[in-house]
Amino acid sequence: MRIPAFSTARSGGSRWGTAVGQAAFTMVEIALSLGIIAFALVAIIGVMPTGLQVQRDNREDTILTRDGQYFLEAIRSGALGSMELTNHVLAITLSNSVGDVFVHTMQPNSPAGLPRGQGVVYVNDLTNSQAVISLLSTPRYSTDNQGRTLTNYVRALVRSVTSTAEEQSNQWRSRDAGDFLPPGFVYLLSTEVVPLRILPPILTNWTASGLSPIEVQVYSNNWLQARNQATNFSELRVTLQGPVYLSGPALQVAGRPRTFRTMVSGQLAMTADNWLAFQPGVFAQATP
Description:
By secondary structure, the protein is α+β, with helices and mostly antiparallel strands. The chain has a domain at 53-193 and 238-264. The protein is 28% helix and 29% strand. The protein contains four helices and 14 strands. The protein has helices spanning 27-76, 129-136, 165-168, 213-232, and strands at 4-8, 14-18, 89-96, 101-105, 120-123, 141-143, 149-159, 186-195, 233-241, 244-247, 250-253, 258-265, 267-270, 276-279. Strands 3, 4, 5, 6, 7, 8, 9 and 12 form an eight-stranded mixed beta sheet that branches. It has a two-stranded antiparallel sheet with strand order 1-2. It has a two-stranded antiparallel sheet with strand order 10-11. The radius of gyration is 34 Å and the shape is elongated.
C-alpha cells in the first residue's frame, strides 16, 4: 500500500505523491550479527593466553641467551671488575661429592628457599664482583687436604642482567628475608670448569702392559702433551634455567635449560688479591 505524501511544488502549488521506502536492518539480522561477533570474540579470547605465553617464553629465552653469553665472557676473561654483578647475583651455593654445602649470600640470615639444615654453612661474602667471579670459576674437580678427589657443584640464583630498565630500578630490588626473590625474571645458573681433554686415556697410558718401546715413547709424549693442555686450557660450560619461583619453603624452577660452552686459554689460578679467576695471558709448562 502506498502512503500519500504532501509536497510543495516550485510553482507554489501542492500535489499528492508517494514516499520512497528506506532500507534498514531488522531485529533478526541484528541478533544474528551479534551472535557472529560473540562467536569470534570467544575464539579470539581463547587464543590470547596462548599468544601471551608464547611472547613470555620468547622473552625469557632472549634473556637467557644474552645473560648466558654475558656470564660466559665474564668468567672466561676473568672479569673481576664487573661491579654490577652484586646487583644481580642473589646467592651462590657450592656443594661437593662428600656432602659439604656452602651458601654465599649478601644477607646475615638464611633466606627462604635456600638450603638449610645440618652441615649447611652460610657465608656472607657476596659484597663485590670479585667474589662472584671467583665462586663461579670453581673447578669441577679438586683435591682436599686429605687427598680425596672432590666433585664440585656450583649453582647461583641470578636476577636477569639484560632485563628491561624498569626491572633494573631500585624498586625491583628486595633483600628482605621474607621477600628474597625480587620481582622480575630470576633463574638458576650453574657452571662447570673442567680441564681440556683431547686425547682419549688409552693413547696417554704409557705404563700399560704389552706396549712396544715405540708405543711407550709415543704414549708418553701424548701424556705430556695432555698434561700441558689440561694445565693451560679449560672447557667452560654455563647452564641457565628459569624462571625460579618460591613454592612454600622451597625454590622451584621452570622452563628448559640452555647450555653455553667455550674453551678458555690461560691458567685458572689465584690472583695477587687472592681471587680465583682465569688469567688468559698466563701459561705454564707442565713437567713430567
